[in-house]
Request: fold
Amino acid sequence: MVNIVIDSNNEYTNLNIYLELSFIIPKTSNEYDKWADIFVGRENWVDNLQLKNFNASPVFHSIYIESILHSYRLLCELARLPIFDTPKLVSLSEDKIDANRYTIKIGTYLDTKVSQSVYKKLINTALKICEWMAQHSPTPDNKHKLFSTITEKVIKPLHQIIPAGKSTIPVLRVAHALGIPFIHLGLGVYQLGWGSKARRLDRSICEFDSAIGTRLAQNKVSTANILREVGLPAPVHGVTTTETDALAIATKIGFPVVVKPADGDRGEGVTVDIFEETQLTAAFAPAHKLSKSKQVIVERQVLGTCHRLFIANGTLLYAVKRHPISVIGDGQRTVSQLVDDEVLKESFKPPWNRSEIKPIDELASQTLQKLGLLPGSVPGKDIIIPLRPIESTEWGGVDEDVTQLVHSENLRIALQAAKIFGLHIAGVDIISPDIAKPWHANGAIINEVNFAPLFGGAEISRSYIPKFLKDFVDGNGKIPIEVFDNEKAAEAFQKRQAVHGMRCYLTTANRTIDELGEEIVMPFINVKQRVRALILSSDVDAIAILNQEKIP
Reply:
């Protein structure tokens, strides 16, 4: 049984809750200790054990209880709830009759836009997981069962009701580390910072992105047409709903061509290296099926690899060369052995940390064949062997940081493309044989302009989040908030802020005054509600809180 108690003495941006729960610690301990290192990751636990302040014994009991806290936090993050600190153990009591039974009270963060039942589900799941791990060895089969349970019982169902996107947690994790407060406004939209310093973000979409631009960027045909009309290098293509017309388009623009859904994403339904009619016929059906509008693009294929230029605030944040999912030769093992070894290594990781590599299948064999390789071939040392024709969200891939290699002319067209679509944040995809050479020297094109590009999904991308937030948010995003017991001191603070051009609001529990002395009417008789309302307003530069019932 889990009880939830709301803490009324919370900060203005977050609500704290207490989870109260009772449980029996399993008698088997050795197996769990093995699991804890693998699943929870007990780095520096010897020094960080919260239970050292409580008289829990034996030592295993401390490890077990601490693991419940860590498991709960991890499950919250996997469910895309931004809880990055291990919950605080507030109290612990041992049953007087059963020494293995404990009741604990922990403090954790509560998102008021998420049902309390979600938090109960997560802590109960953490309890069940820890109990199960204590009684089962971490064999490959048992690891598979555990990871499958988490995926099916936590990740999939909660992702249906928790609106945060894939980029949300990586960005908020860094914001938290930098001391930038955040508030969930609903629908996965978060405010980073307070008052006039606040910025709003949904995945990698921000308040400065054009709604019209995002709509146009979602359609590949409209994107290409606009790019072409403003003088930027764009794909040469045609759009059709029939296989017959697709062949006519391909004949007109010339093989090889690429076939893809007009409104698809994730790289699904995309076929490259189409050199003849039979290949075109085979590629048309899946593209047509996956297209919402049942429109298919037949596009002239250009030489090169896709490069993602991540544009933010009119500058290049980073650029990556997007290689297909691959293995790297060592001069000894065959391609098949390299793949099998990599698949095995990834299988020991939780699904949410694995790459998309799979055993060699028909598509991988076809990709190898185009390179003159077979599964039994032995590639040389450090040779990259792609297993898919292109990188995509569906198939996975490997990014290479090429930020310092981007030619100034390629950067210019990427910046211009983002500006034309009115996107403060954009992922501009340039297909080029060499991003270090200007587009007009090697036939490169802008393939897509993406709004809400995946941010923080891979290591390279995550490494640039601090720089992004530094440019996106003013300092740590906090405005001055001072609490006063004396009315004159509060008014003096408000005047000092005004001297510096700061719009400082003064508030009590039942009255709020703006920087001009005008009352701001609110339906609240609570200081915390009024302060929260103020930090959600872009008109507020500072807040003075007066601990009195009235302002004369």
